[in-house]
Each structure stands twice: as structure tokens, then as C-alpha cells.
Amino acid sequence: MVQTAHTKIALVVNEGHALHHVHDRGYVESPARIPAILRGISQTGLFSRVEPRHFSDRTVKGVHDSRFVTYLKRTCAAVEPGSSIYPYRPPRDLSLRAGYYAIDTFTPLDGNAYRAARGAVDCALTAARSLLQGYRLAYALVRPPGHHAERRAFGGFCYLNSTAIAAHYLSAQGRVAVLDVDYHHGNGTQEIFYERSDVLTVSLHGHPRFAYPYFTGFADERGRGDGDGYNLNLPLPEKITEDEYRHTLARALRRLKRFDPKFIVVAFGLDPAKDDPTGSWSLQAKDFEANGRTIGSLHVPTLVVQEGGYRVRSLGTNARHFFLGLWQGFHGRRPITEGIQAR
Ligand SMILES: [Zn+2]
Questions:
Q1: Rounded Cα distance, 202 and 89, in Å
Q2: Predicted confidence band at 88 (pLDDT cuts at 50, 70, 90)?
Q3: How far, in Å, is the centroid of ligand 1 from the Cα of 279?
Q4: For residues 120 and 144, is the Cβ–Cβ distance under 8 A?
């Protein structure tokens, strides 16, 4: 059977991502991540490339504080080529003030960070828009990631929260559930939607006792005001079995089902994978495929936005298996893949 255009997964890639390259040792959020994933998924035949279009700053400021966006844009533009600004906390130099707008001290501002992050936002929004145009599944393959960026703070390799901006955009059409499966708690997305009941936020992650971002991601953070009961954190131990992971994901999906969203946005981290330098779990390709399948089997139009995942060698294989599973779960049949088969 020939797959029609809209049974394919809309794929929007942040081509400008490589502008942003922090050379410091240990800065594992590297440009090599994107081609590694692209190589992994390109031969499945499941994807249809969609060119990113530009969305206005108004859409970004629906989520982020306007002064924060201006600060990022101006500061990145003013940094000398080849140098970068690291935040201090508390801010020592008021003219830089990076500490005022940052959640940690290891994510730098440099000449290209804002442009690359803004490109990622456009890709996430373009992919979200493709769901309004008939696609049922869409993937924004972007970096830098976004889920640690709060309304008015950057950090954790993140500058602008593409996932939250896309979820906010889709929320104009109906209820949206954000499912964050990155190894690290999506503190930014939680903070942005903490008082809203029309956007449910659910996150499975390493317990903040030992995992970044340390200060958020606890089970008792449930939302506030109208949002009370619309944030679910499922912190997990440092070592877990596949069964424990699967049961926790099933619990997350039961909450999603009860919420009955019109759209799901998956904050897609590949850092729960075996040997990821920032994680402690051991998910393998077959686990990512199973995760994709259960998410797809909810049959809700789904936008997947790339977040973390730093073991470049296995990114492509794990991403491929996730999307094979997602497609299969959604359509209830095995995809007809072109070229290489899933291994
Ligand atoms: Zn992560």
C-alpha cells in the first residue's frame, strides 16, 4: 500500500542549528547530534520534509517574558565573535546580568545562540502547524533543546522553550498534553504551564535528588491555581528496569487519556538511553520502539520535539525505532519501510 502524504510524519529540521557550537569540554550538546539522528531516520521512508517558515516574535512572547527575549537577542548579538558570556549567580556585573536570566552557570550566551534557538522555535511551530494542515504526526528535529528554558530564564543547554511555544500555539485549538520523556525534568515547560488547566504537563525523569535540574521535578509539584492537578511529575530512581520504566510510562499515559487532549506534544529526549553521558538509565532501541508504540496507540495527533540525548553513536538507531513504533501504534499496522529495515 502506498502511504499518502499525510500518513507520513512531517519532518522539520533546524538547518541553522550548527551555528550554535559551544566548544568547551564536556558541553555534550553538540552539532553532531542532528546529522546522527537524520542518518538514523532518513531511510525509513516514514518522513516527509516540510520547510520551516518564520513565525513572529509575538508567538515566542506568548510564552516567554518579553524583556527576557529582548535580553537574549541583544546580548547574543553584542558578544564578540569567538567569545561567550557565562552567567554568574548572583549577578556580579549588572551590565551583563546573565545570572538574572539564567537557571545555572554552564550554559553560555554567544553570537549565535539566539539565532539557532530562534530557528528551532520556527521549526517546532512549523511542525505544529503541519498538524493543523492534516498531518497526524510531526517531528521537529532541532537543537539547541528547549525544555529547561523557563518563562524568563535560560539554562541546561536551552535558550527558548520550543516545546512550550509549540504547545501554547496548539492550545488555541484545544487541550494540549505535553509528555516529557527526556531523562531530565522539564522544569521550563512545567513552570510555563503551572497555572493552566488547558495544558497538561507530565514528565518522567531521573529524581532531582541526583539528576539535573535538582530543584524541580518532585512528585508534590502538582500545579497551582487553575493548574492545580494539571502537572504530574514521575521521578524515577537512578537505576531502573525496563519494566519499571514501562509501568511508569503507562501511568503517564493513563493521565493523558483522562485529560482527553486534542494534541500531544512529546518533549523527546534520547538521554534515557544506555550509556548516555548525562543519564543513568539503560533504555535500548527496542524500548524506544515500545515507548513510541504506546504513545502512538493513543491515536491523538502528536508533535515530537527533539530535546536531549548525547550519545551520538546510538541517537540515530534509537530515534528510528521510536518513530517506527510511534507510526505503528498510531496507524495500527507495520509501516512499509523503504531501504533498511529496523534492526
Ligand atoms: Zn535531558
A1: 29
A2: low
A3: 8
A4: yes
CB-count burial class (<10 Å; 0-12, 13-18, 19+) for 152 = middle
pLDDT at 86: 78
Q: Which residues, including other chains, have CB under 8 Å from residue 136's CB and lie 6 or more apart? A: 6, 7, 301, 302, 330
- Cα-to-centroid distance, 2 and ligand 1 (Å): 36
User: How far is ligand 1, taken at its centre, from the CA of residue 339, in Å?
Assistant: 31
Å from CA of 338 to ligand 1 middle: 31
Quote the ligand 1 centre to 228 CA distance (angstroms). 25
Mean pLDDT along residues 80-105: 70
Ligand 1 centroid–CA 27 distance in Å is: 13
Confidence band for 48, pLDDT divided at 50, 70 and 90: very high
Average pLDDT over residues 242-246: 94
Domains of the chain: 5-55+116-331 (3.40.800.20)
Task: Strand 231-236: give its sheet, edge to edge.
Answer: 47-49, 9-13, 137-141, 302-306, 263-268, 176-180, 199-206, 231-236
What is the distance in A from the centroid of ligand 1 to the CA of 259? 25
Please tell me whether the overall predicted TM-score, pTM, comes out greater than 0.85 for this model: yes
Indicate the pLDDT class of residue 96, thresholds 50, 70 and 90. low
Q: Which of 20, 148, 168, 321 is catalytic?
A: 148
Q: For residue 62, what is its C-alpha cell?
A: 506568548
The CA distances from residue 119 to 12, 274, 289, 305, in Å, are: 11, 30, 28, 13
Is 148 a residue of the active site? yes
Q: What is the pLDDT of residues 265-286, one digit of tens each?
A: 999 999 999 999 999 999 999 9
Closest-CA residue to 155 (of 110, 119, 101): 101
- Whether the CB-CB separation of 179 and 148 falls below 8 Å is answered with no
| Beta pairing, strands 302-306 & 176-180 | unpaired
pLDDT tens-digit series, residues 146-200: 999 999 999 999 999 999 999 999 999 999 999 999 999 999 999 999 999 999 9
Q: Which residues of 118-149 are buried (b: 16+ CB within 10 A; e: fewer)?
A: bbbbbbbbbbbbbbeeebbbbbbbbbbbbbbb
